[in-house]
Amino acid sequence: MPTTSYPKLLVLGIGNLLMGDEGVGVHLAQRLAEQPLPSGIDVLDGGTGGFHLTNYFTSYPCLILIDATLDERPPGTIRLLEPRFSSDFPRSMSTHDIGLRDLLEGLQVMGQMPKVYLFAVSIAELQEMHIGLSPEVEKVMPELEERVKVLAGELVGKGVKV
After folding, report:
1. 43 in a domain, yes or no?
2. Using an 8 Å Cβ cutoff, are 41 and 11 in contact?
3. Among 69, 109, 60, 61, which residue's Cα sits nearest to residue 89?
4. How many domains does the chain have?
5. pLDDT of residue 99
6. How would you list the strands of the sheet with 9-14, edge to edge?
7. Is the residue at 90 inside a domain?
């Protein structure tokens, strides 16, 4: 459970909708954006924004990232990580990996790295030109949504109904 409460928080879904499960973070961000959330919790579909997301990372003291990872775990495995450095992020964050890693390394060097919680969702493969999620990843979406909402509520010090 978080020990620090933040006045504002960004829930940032990362991924590419055109590559199947790789877009899990974007799918979740779009679902959350349609729901009422307590004040102080913002949601953004970050897509494959890479460096274009810099302003969001520097504008929020805390972020919850949701992203897919090719980590050889069973598809749909959800892990909550608290990376402090770019090297702490899973090595196989797919198509946007280079831009996001470079962004995080730059923020670290500049001393502007916010507190980051990462929900990494294991996927089996990249599915080029496929919109939608595999049955394994779709099955865990309600759990992922609940876990993100509960953590977000804890981080801004407000209860979130799930």
Report:
1. yes
2. yes
3. 69
4. 1
5. 64
6. 41-47, 9-14, 62-69, 115-122, 78-81
7. yes
Would you say residue 121 has pLDDT above 90? yes
Domain span including residue 109: 9-155
* Per-residue tokens: 135: 């049955």
Model confidence over 147-158: pLDDT tens digits? 999 999 999 986
State the average pLDDT over residues 113-125. Answer: 92
143 class by beta-carbon count within 10 Å (0-12 exposed, 13-18 middle, 19+ buried): exposed
- CA-based nearest residue to 25, from 10, 44, 42: 44
The domain that contains 100 carries what CATH number?
A: 3.40.50.1450
Distance set, CA 11 to CA 14, 127, 136 (Å): 10, 25, 23
Vertex 43 angle, CA 31 and 130, to 5°: 45
What is the reported pTM? Answer: 0.86
Q: Is 107 helix (H, G, I), strand (E, B) or coil?
A: helix
Question: Does any domain span residue 106?
Answer: yes
